[in-house]
Amino acid sequence: MDRKLEKKTWTPRRIAYIIGGALLVAGIIYQLGFADHRSTMNVEQDRLSITTVKTGEFTDYILVSGQIEPAQTFYLDAVEGGMVAEVIRESGATVNRGDTILALTNSNLQLDVMQRETMLYEQINNLRQTRLLLDQNDLSQQGQLAEIDYQISLLEPQYKRFKELHEKKLVSDREFEEVKEQYEYNLKRRRLTYESYKNDSIARSIQLNQLRNSENRMQASLQGVGKILNNLIITAPIAGQLAMEQIEVGQAINPGQRYGQIDVLDEFKVRVPIDELYLPRIGRGLRGKFTLSGQEYELEISKIYPTITNGRFEVDMVFTGESPQGIRRGQSVRIRLELGQSEQSLLLATGGFFKDTGGNWVFVINPSTGNAEKRNIRLGRKNPEYYEVLEGLVEGEKVIVSGYENFGDNEVLEMK
Questions:
Q1: How far apart are the first and last CA of the chain?
Q2: Alpha helices in 267-375 (DSSP H)
Q3: Phi and psi at residue 249, in whole multiples of 5°?
Q4: How far apart (Å, rounded) are the C-alpha atoms in residues 350 and 346?
Q5: pTM here?
Q6: DSSP label at residue 190
Q7: What pLDDT score does 219 carry?
């Protein structure tokens, strides 16, 4: 006789199905809400440059290269042209003020100087002749006045005497009129002659002053013409070291041609080309430093040349203290040029990451997982060693600063 069996509710299979389903649902919930879906990439840690974010003194500076130059340079330009007759000082020689460097010869110039001197002497002689004629005319007019005064001195007593006699009816009217007319004629003549002499004297004074000025100018011109030939003997205008192109006897030098220079070796400066990007931040008084033979020297910007050539402008920097011993013209130095005051900041070392991210994000090491995770940051100023960190990082965090070009769009780097 058959017996009815009761069906079990919790069979092993059902329990297994329920557990499997619960695990599946939990896995889905975890994947949707808690799992890390960021793209990852395996990298070898040994090939990365990793640095630690730190707090320190940030100095805003750039590294520039400059060339040593004499603080003062006097250029040698030929005032007059000619053929080189003798080379007395060679390039590189030390010269004193007034030392002869070159002797030139120019026959055409010598002939021209002689002709100018002859013409000036003739003009000076003509001026002197004119002045002599003016003096003679002055003497002639003075003589006429003297003669008139003499006639008046003779006629005046006679006129007075005849007048008294005429009043007493002792001389005739005709005799009195003759004496009177002669006397009044000479008075009128003297008045007119004196007026003419006075006007001529004023004009003569102006003309003589003009003649003197003209003669002085001609004398100065004569002296200047005489010194033209002195320009054929070229002397050093100042003491220093002569730097001159190769010049041979018989070589022609044209007027205005620059054939050399004299460098004053007592002081030096540094000519520094700088990228035009920094032009708004460069000003007189900014300081820089460089090291030579283990000793540090300080410089200061004294002059700025704003003209931009090939994307660069130039500045002159002078030594604020002693200049290095034994430096030479043309020697190059590497200068640390400060653009602002130092201040405490959060610092991140420079690296190749910047060209890939523009400084907008970096890979930061997660200390709990050991992986590098992408994080947005904000950087400020930069010098050759550090970036100034404004946001996104804290002191002590480790950051990958080598190039990111091989990481693609991955957001997590798993270290090996």
A1: 73
A2: 353-357
A3: -60, 135
A4: 13
A5: 0.53
A6: H
A7: 83
